[in-house]
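ok trying this again, last paste got cut off
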Amino acid sequence: MRDDENVSALIGDIYDAALDPSLWVGVLAKCAQYVRGPAAALFAKDALSKTGHVAYSSGIATLYKQLYFEKYIKLDPLTVGQFFAKVGEPVSVGDIIPHDEFRETRAYQEWGRPQGLVDALNVVLDKAETSAAMFSVWRHERDGLVDDEMRRRMRLIVPHVRRAVLIGNVIDLKTAEAMSFADSLDGLSAGMFLVDDGARIVHANASGHGMLAANDFLRAAGGRLVAGDGQTDQALREIFAAAGSGDAAVGVRGIAVPLRSRDGERYVAHVMPLTSGARRRAGTNYAAVAALFVHKAALDTPSPPEVIAKTFGLTPSELRVLLGIVEVGGVSETATALGIAETTVKTHLHHLFVKTGTSRQADLVKLVAGFSNPLVGPMR
């Protein structure tokens, strides 16, 4: 019972951080403690340019944050591992690369080990073609590697972290005071609707009214918000009804509900419950249990490395070596760049030749170039 109360309170804090980003550092500290790790972060990575930045973190010293993005992001096998990660699914180091091989890397030897960090549980919250928004909780050596209990706890909070981050990106506000919640969101380009547990619209911003006036993928019928597609409409009704029972009840539902207009334009909807925390006052003021945010969806285009990996059945370690060969050239140079032994590179290179039907490193470079010129462009 105590654990249920703790996670319920944590979920409420997570949603409050979507409206007030200044809360994220404290919320991440609570997430790390709940998941049983010493540190947590929300950050973004681009796996091709090997760049990134931390949005919010707790438990990682400023020096090590700087070092990671200045130097070790290029050596971290988890950077390439994001191509294999399913959105919303917790992935540990061992899911990407054997731990014996990971311990060889400079990323571990020079960055993780000095901090006592032996493992991490990472979740891709959202993906673009080559970049990803990530949520991570690290594991200290005193607690051992990621275990089933850590995964279980992570899965309980990840849907809420993902929803809060996506909504936070949509509203892009420093602070949204609960008393003026609707007013502060009226200027959004995204459509915003406040609804009760019966899907009745109690407030909509200008963009929301424009969507209703178009009478396309969303409309108002008898004061209720109705989706043009019957299955989507049923899903939204269930989410709104669940929101009336509290933050945790929404669970994995409504993180990204797809909508499609008659002309084929794709939209996505995110539902935020308004039944606890700082959001409760807004819900009470407007007799609403949830806020629905609707905006155009980005094209879901798989990245060239992801396509290559799936085409030839490559492991994350093999893809990492392939991209290293394309970027820097020989075995010794790739070993240095990736921070692993030359023998390890040679083993993966042999597997690459077998899987791709090639016999020379030059053939691998041509193969990658054939999938996408932009992939090799910045690496030359």
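PB: full thing came through this time. Confidence is low (pLDDT under 50) at residues 173-179, 373-380.
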